[in-house]
Design brief:
CATH superfamily of the largest domain: Type I PLP-dependent aspartate aminotransferase-like (Major domain)
Strand order of the largest sheet: 4-14-13-12-9-5-8
Radius of gyration: 21 Å
CATH topology of the largest domain: Aspartate Aminotransferase, domain 2
Bound molecules: pyridoxal-5'-phosphate
Distance between the termini: 29 Å
Largest sheet: 7 strands, mixed
Shape: globular
Strand content: 15-25%
Number of domains: 2
Number of strands: 18
Length: 426
């Protein structure tokens, strides 16, 4: 047994499944997850000393790569001044001002420690601000693991939602309607039937938790119009797409503004930091200004904020996103070419530095499409890549991420590994 295998066995004795977040356990692809010892730039090293080119980036945050010297220095400086005060700091204000200046739909925001907390609080805010209970979400979108968001469609899309996890009361799930992503007709029907009861709609404008699926312009415009017409709040969950697909997130790319925006991942640069923000007239409902309760002992933690600020400092540099998107296209186009040369049914898509790989002839537009992709082929491709030192997300239902540390030489190495991996598929 190598050290990874020993650690995985040991981990399973004291931690359920050996992991602190389920996808890390490799259940979908099988095998033993590498235990990571350290990371630098675009590279990871596991406990057996194996090197990997990282295309997961901690599931999104590591847009400038791992252990960037400027970020590490900011974190060390902040840590030396004390780890947590439970009191306001100047850095939090600076951080909030930065986000406000970069995202036009946000006039005020509240910092929290995880995307789950931020999405949960955004839903409570939408309900508190509208005085309504019902929310809409879409199949295949993930918004963290709060009760009301772990819901699947009932017998039909326009019926009451059902819990998608044990432990979620049916009474909670029934307030969530689950519709098909990119389906405008269902949206019209849902608002026609229930418009006056809908507090808000939460959506990933670029979905990244069912592999990568783009929200169509028509879909997002329809959402915007229906929410406005019926007095519901449109919540864009940009935990993944924010500061990833563009500096101003999906809202910049699509030109469509949300009422409430949920942020996480990149804004914390790898530390536990997330946020939700909106116009002032919406945010005034949050305590202590208004009656919607929300709080957190470690919210706005000084180390996390220092890490986020140092990360933002680097990504606002001119040309940063263009270069990153170019490198990502190089990767996806190279993969498609390699697969095509071998007559493998494969496609790829990218929005900014977020990408999707699909063992199917074309990019999916819904959860149903994603389910049609060849999962067995993905799993074999995944292991062939891992064996060649390329670390992809261990599931066919996750997006991948390129960082500014993935230079052309590393992209070429990935494409070389992929050519061999495609050959190995047979
Ligand atoms: C990752 C993610 C979340 C949850 O964030 P956590 O920090 O893992 O709680 C919520 N929404 C989206 C779109 C995400 O990608």
């Amino acid at each position: 047994m190598n050290r990874n295998e020993q650690l995985f066995e040991r981990a399973q004795r004291s931690i359920p499944g050996g992991v602190n977040s389920p996808v890390r356990a490799f259940r979908s692809v099988g095998g033993t997850p590498p235990f990571i010892a350290r990371a630098q730039g675009a590279l990871l090293w596991d406990e057996d000393g194996r090197r990997y080119i990282d295309l997961v980036g901690s599931w999104g945050p590591m847009i400038i790569g791992h252990a960037h010297p400027a970020v590490i220095k900011a974190v060390q400086t902040a840590a030396a001044r004390g780890l947590s005060f439970g009191a306001p700091t100047e850095a939090e204000v600076e951080f909030a001002e930065r986000i406000v200046s970069l995202m036009p739909s946000i006039e005020q925001l509240r910092l929290v420690s995880s995307g789950t907390e931020a999405a949960m609080s955004a839903i409570r805010l939408a309900r508190g601000a509208t005085g309504r209970d019902r929310i809409i979400k879409f199949e295949g979108c993930y918004h963290g693991h709060a009760d009301g968001l772990l819901v699947k469609a009932g017998s039909g899309a326009l019926t009451l939602g059902h819990p998608s996890s044990a432990g979620v009361p049916a009474d909670v799930a029934r307030h969530t309607m689950v519709l098909d992503y990119n389906d405008c007709q269902q949206l019209h029907d849902a608002f026609r039937l229930h418009g006056s009861q809908i507090a808000g709609v939460i959506v990933e404008p670029v979905a990244g938790n069912m592999n990568l699926v783009r929200g169509s312009g028509e879909f997002l415009r329809t959402l915007r119009e229906l929410c406005t017409r019926h007095g519901a709040l449109l919540v864009f969950d940009e935990v993944m797409s924010g500061f990833r697909v563009a500096l101003g997130g999906a809202q910049q790319l699509t030109g469509i503004s949300a009422d409430i925006t949920v942020l996480g991942k990149v804004i914390g640069g790898g530390m536990p930091l997330a946020a939700f923000g909106a116009r002032r007239d919406v945010m005034r409902h949050i305590s202590p200004l208004g009656p919607v309760y929300q709080a957190g002992t470690l919210s706005g933690n000084p180390i996390a904020v220092a890490c986020g600020l140092a990360t933002l400092e680097l990504i606002v540099q001119p040309g940063f996103y263009e270069a990153l998107a170019g490198r990502t296209r190089l990767l996806t186009e190279g993969l498609v070419q390699a697969a095509r040369a071998r007559r493998i049914s494969f496609s790829a898509d990218a929005v900014g530095s977020m990408f999707g790989l699909y063992f199917s002839d074309k990019a999916p537009t819904s959860y149903r499409d994603v389910m049609q992709c060849d999962r067995d082929r993905f799993n074999r491709f995944f292991h062939a890549m891992l064996a060649r030192g390329v670390y992809l997300a261990p599931s066919a239902f996750e997006a991948g991420f390129v960082s500014s540390e993935h230079d052309e030489a590393l992209i070429a190495q990935i494409l070389g590994a992929a050519a061999e991996a495609f050959d190995a598929l047979g």
